[in-house]
Amino acid sequence: MRRRKRYRSMYDRDEFDIKNFISEIGHWAIAILIVIILGYSIVTFGVQSVTMIGQSMSPALTNQDVLVLNKTAYFIHKPQRYDIVAFKLKEEQDDYFNIKRIIGLPGEKIQIMNGKIFINGDVLKDLPFDDLIMTEGLAVSEIELGSEEYFVIGDNCNNSEDSRYVNIGNISKKEISGKVVFRISPRSEFGAIK
To answer: Which conformational region is residue 188 in: left (phi greater than 0), alpha (psi within -120 to 50 degrees), or beta?
Structure first.
């Protein structure tokens, strides 16, 4: 006996399920939205690239170095001596970041005499730079830092506008945008910042 071939009509096929299709689109839309929110959050609250302008941090950092700024570093702990930080002064409205090294911590007394930095009357001996400081600026007299204030200096101390000068002065913790942790460019210097 011959079997008859059975042909399926288009009505027998699985129908296109519009509800599943809309549900799948909804899942993808939610996933994409989550990725966008996470990306925005990382840039806004996590990390950001910044560019070093000028030679005030030479030789540690040089002009046009592209750096990674960790904006969450100081949520967990306070800034430490010798951290390299990026900050914006309250009156600055542009995207320019000042990048300097923290020397003085809250509550300390800072003074520069005979080319050396004194903290609470003692010479700071383990500085990351060797140059004698030729300009004392505001630190010619002892400066006492407030409970949320930091004293910053560029590693190229004789070519740096920093806390020794009136237009920068002591910086507050609120002005610090984050800790400089990594160099992206130039490629020859790619790596963690010390």
So the answer is: alpha
Rounded distance between C-alpha atoms, residue 151 and residue 100, angstroms: 10
Q: What is the pLDDT of residues 51-66, one digit of tens each?
A: 999 999 999 999 999 9
How many CB atoms lie under 10 A from the CB of residue 150? 26
pLDDT of residue 82: 96
Strand partners, 117: 112
Which residues are part of the catalytic machinery? 56
pTM score: 0.76
Of the candidates 124, 131, 89, 130, the one whose C-alpha atom is nearest the C-alpha of residue 105 is: 124
Which DSSP string corresponds to 16-70?
P-HHHHHHHHHHHHHHHHHHHHHHHHIIIIIEEEEE--SSTTTTTS-TT-EEEEE
Looking from the CA of 183 toward its CB, the CA atoms found within 13 Å total 18
